[in-house]
Amino acid sequence: MATRPEMARNVLLYWMDAMMALLGVMFLSIAVLHWSMGAISLPHAAAVIVCQLGFFGLFPFMLREAYDRRPRRPSRLALLAGLFAAGTLALLPPQISDMPSWVEIGMLWLSAAALYLPPPATVCLTVTVLGLVTGVATVLTGRPWEGILLTQSISAVGMIAAMLLWRWLWWTIRDAHDGKEAKARLAVAEERLRFARDLHDLLGHSLSVITLKSELAAKLATKDEGRAAAEMADVRRLAGEALAEVQLAVDGYQALDLDEELASVRAALEAAGMRCVVDARVDGLSPVARALLAWAVREGGTNVLKHSAAGHCTITIEAGVLEMRNDGVLGRPSGSGNGLRGLSERLVTAGGSFSAEPTPTGEFLLRAAVPA
Prior knowledge:
Helix content is 72%, strand content 8%. By secondary structure, it is of the alpha+beta class. The protein has a 5-stranded mixed beta sheet, with helices on one face. The radius of gyration is 34 Å and the shape is elongated.
């Protein structure tokens, strides 16, 4: 399933692709119109069309590069400028009486340059291009330069601001997503460290004593069999105690509290921008049933956070049946992951049932039932 940042990036890029296609068709139509009216020859029109196809074909790839990182290859920018100049300045006839349509392409090129250049260089380039465009347009149209400069300045600033805003929006969404993943990885790492520390504290002393007594028993085996047997008896006792402590630690690690999991999942979903409603009636449930439902709540919440674009999630528990509904279904599910598969096996083994699938109403429903 696509993530939210990837979806936001695709929406922005596909929208820009559609705009480039629309502008390309418009300017290609202008070249064809000039040829049909006899203003330019067929080879002239063909040269213009080739240059404009190159410009509007290269532009989307430059956007994709700029959205992923700050690009460091100005050669593409120079190539785009060459195509713009050849296709719209040098190749179009100079006797056009109205405002040349190529001016807007120049402003579009400026917006692309803003993605490649640092702000001071962008300002200098914008001033230079506006001066050149205003001068050439004034000569071609005979209109006052003040009006042309004002119009094109507004257009240039608007296009550059929009382009930078779109990229900033994508970078912000991407960084927020990366931050959430980093927090999840950090939480897992901290839990592993805690568990490792607990095991070390439990087993470190016991295993050290077992090692020393085993070595002592080996040395006494040929000298004092009675004492050696006593030491080995201590070793067996210590090993049994250590095993019991590990089992208690693992049981405590695996035990989940249903109320705590409900509160934790609700807080996590709301922190991710979702609205979460919890209606849990858990009175009368056995400790085993509560623990199983706690595992289901945890896995369901993780599934919503990682694999959906939900804005609303509802969690209900009644008569030992948990239902988690969210409105964030993204396409067709690719199959159950390891977490849901493991949860299903855990519930079925305990005599319950489990299902997780989209509903006809467009929601995703996780349903877990346990023996009350």
